[in-house]
Amino acid sequence: MEFVVISLLNGITYGLLLFMLSSGLTLIFSMMGILNFAHASFYMLGAYFAYQISAWLGFWPGLLVAPLLVGAVGAAVERYGLRRAHRFGHVAELLFTFGLAFLVEEVVHLVWGTSSVDYKIPAELDGTLFTLFSTDFPIYKGFMMLISVGMLVALYALLTRTRIGLIIQAALTKPDMVEALGHNVPRIFMLVFGGGTALAGLAGVIGGNAFITEPGMAAAVGSIVFVVVVVGGLGSLGGAFVASLLIGCIQTFSIGLTISVTDVFALIGVTLPAGSQVARLTITQLAPVLPYILMVAILIFRPRGLMGARES
Amino acid sequence: MFRRGRLLLWGACLALAVALPLVFKSGFMLSLLCQIGIMVVFALSYNMLLGQTGLLSFGHAVYFGIGAFISMHTLNMIGKDGGPLVVALLPLVGGLAGLLAGVVLGWVTTKKAGTTFAMISLGIGELVAACALMFPGLFGGEGGISGNRVVGTGSLLGFTWGPQVEMYGLIVAWAFVATVAMFALTQTPLGRMANAVRDNPERAEFVGYDTQRVRYLMLILSGLFAGVAGGLTALNYEIVTAETLNAHTSGVVLLMTFVGGIGFFYGPIIGAILVTVMQIVIGGMTQAWLLYFGLFFLFMVLMAPGGIASVIAMQRNLWQAGLFRRMVPHYLAVALPILVLLAGLVGLIEMTYALLAGEGVGAGDTATKVMGMQLQLASMEPWAIALAITVAGVALTRWIGGRTRAAWNETLATLHGDRT
């Protein structure tokens, strides 16, 4: 019971963080048709910017400034890079973001070195929020949840309740019509791209110190975010939300389970040959692979994803 | 297929590949040539997907790596019973392994095309790479598995494959056979249909072809040739690590294929040669090699998305129309400011690397050696100079580059017959 509740809380925290990444990715994809390969790189930049700012000014200014900086970088990338690559088609755009991810990693190597940096949780958030059964739930996890949920409510309100949100929604499906009505669609694209990358940056700011801030963090999270987007259904925000929480929970539950694959198969009455390499694996060891196995299963049984609108 | 000019060209390429080790005898050059030969096959197999079928894959190293691992296991299994002939045929085993991997994994990945395919291929690539670390018995864990390519006694026509130069001969033979086979494939109905599926899947469906099946077949065949390259790499290095099938290897083959040019059959060959040479030569000179490579790649995506092959093809068109001479002075004029820009930029990057690599350099007055010069990185002077050179380079490139572009557009208009 204790294990279930604690894992569930951890899984939701991680899932919400994943959703901050996948929501930006989904918005950018459904609006511009660009799969932003460098999305996780902006997450990494957010963490590094926040580390640098917190070293100079403290954590709280970093929480505000780092995402804005990342958003500005994202908007500049869209304006001066992607818009140019767009003329050569989708493959060129995808390759541009791929090259960008490559470059960001190298720049991070150059500026902050190849090993992890000491980006710490601020002292006022370091402690126990409440004790459940016998496990402490840290304040910082609660803070992460608060920020992510607050951000998502704000995003939802922005998209559905404001004028710019309505224009963005209209431009998602009918960009030509929106342009004909006198709106500057390229600028809206730039704003969406900047906003999406700023969200990724914010995820980096609050995720960087909860996990670890190192040059490999973009690659580690990046492929998981892609899995989330495929499982949820390309272009579906609701699907991305469900898939984020699902994969967040799968990751945290599987890390805690030490039963072996043999035991799992024994439950359904299958006895694996003892001594084979598969039989000796535990669920914990399988944890890094489970999201990909889920993705393959979804692709075989429901190719458009959990909530994908159409098959592409 | 068998036109005289084409046969001559193929023959000349083969003769050149065979003659190269006679000129470059050093061990360094020989291992570089071996690496190039392997990468040419790998990049060409990748272009069967990206260039010919329009499938952007981020997980092509899977087939390369599986081919390499299976070849290595086979090599260790035959042990003393085998001979040089068996070893020479080992890349075929790698190819079959790559083909089987394509049959299994391709069934999942090729259900979709376009962006979705790109993401799925990435996920499958990560899946296999994670599995490789999970089964140390099969993949050797962090250390990889190793073997010895000289097995049994005797020789095949005097070859034992022990010396590197004999291994190079084997690589050239396999690379030539694989290249001819891949070229022949582009001339078959399947190769043509792959192009149709790339250009307009809807129409291809209307004509009565199953686009998914065409993609699936192309992926399987591409896996075959990637597996051959993997088998060659296993024999060449006599060690295979989990790195051969991870995302980094997939990324490198994508970069080299794209830089070479995906629209032409010979594009990936140029890319493989260029990138491998750059990797080993520039990578030996500076730590910042990956940064330069990333910048170079972005430059290519934005400025010449057709790759080097398309640039060459353009110049050939101009040459045939007798217009090339008109552009030569403009090329020379624009080369100078670009060189200035590069010098400034490289200076800045190298100084930053030197500053961050050497601890305490910023504190004292010690001079650091950067690009053969003794520089005081603690003072402002070298930074100001490098920055000034860069800024001047940008300004000059914009100014002269604008004129070159105008001349280029003029020449193109003439070429297309709009003007005389």
The ordered string of helix (H) and strand (E) elements of chain A is HHHHEEHHHHHHHHHH
| Number of domain modules of chain B | 2
In total, how many beta strands of chain B?
4
| Percent helix range of chain A | over 70%
Overall pLDDT level of chain A: 84
Q: Which range best describes the helical content of chain B: under 10%, 10-25%, 25-40%, 40-55%, 55-70% or over 70%?
A: over 70%
Unreliable segments of 5+ consecutive residues of chain B: 359-365
Over the alpha carbons, how many angstroms does the gyration radius of chain B reach? 24 Å
Rg of chain A to the nearest angstrom? Answer: 21 Å
**Oligomerization category of the chains in this entry:** heterodimer
Tell me the structural class of chain B.
mainly alpha
Q: What do these coordinates show?
A:
The complex is a heterodimer of chains A (312) and B (420). Chain A is mainly α. Chain A has a domain of 214 residues. Chain A is built from 14 helices and two strands. In chain A, β1 and β2 form a beta hairpin. Chain A starts with a helix and ends in an 11-residue tail after the last helix. The model of chain A has no long low-confidence stretch (mean pLDDT 84). Chain B has two domains: 288 residues, ABC transporter involved in vitamin B12 uptake, BtuC; 95 residues, no CATH class. Chain B contains 17 helices and four strands. About 2% of the residues of chain B have low confidence. Chains A and B meet through α3, α4, α9 and α14 of A and α6, α12, α14 and α16 of B.
Task: List the defining traits of the structure above.
heterodimer, A: 312 residues, mainly alpha, two-stranded antiparallel sheet, 14 helices, B: 420 residues, ABC transporter involved in vitamin B12 uptake, BtuC, 2 domains, 17 helices, 4 strands, 74% helix
Q: Topology, pairings included?
A:
The complex is a heterodimer of chains A (312) and B (420).
Chain A: H1 2-32, H2 39-56, H3 59-86, H4 90-112, E1 128-132, E2 135-138, H5 139-161, H6 163-173, H7 175-180, H8 185-208, H9 217-232, H10 237-256, H11 261-267, H12 277-280, H13 283-286, H14 290-301
Antiparallel strand pairs in A: 1-2
Helix pairs in contact in A: 1-5, 1-8, 1-9, 1-10, 2-3, 2-4, 2-8, 2-9, 3-4, 3-8, 5-6, 5-8, 9-10, 9-14
Chain B: H1 4-23, H2 27-50, H3 61-78, H4 84-88, H5 90-109, H6 114-134, H7 136-139, E1 145-146, H8 164-187, H9 189-199, H10 201-207, H11 211-237, E2 239-240, H12 247-260, H13 267-285, H14 289-303, H15 307-320, H16 324-357, E3 368-370, E4 373-375, H17 381-415
Helix pairs in contact in B: 1-8, 2-8, 2-11, 2-12, 2-13, 3-5, 3-11, 5-11, 8-11, 9-10, 9-11, 12-13, 16-17
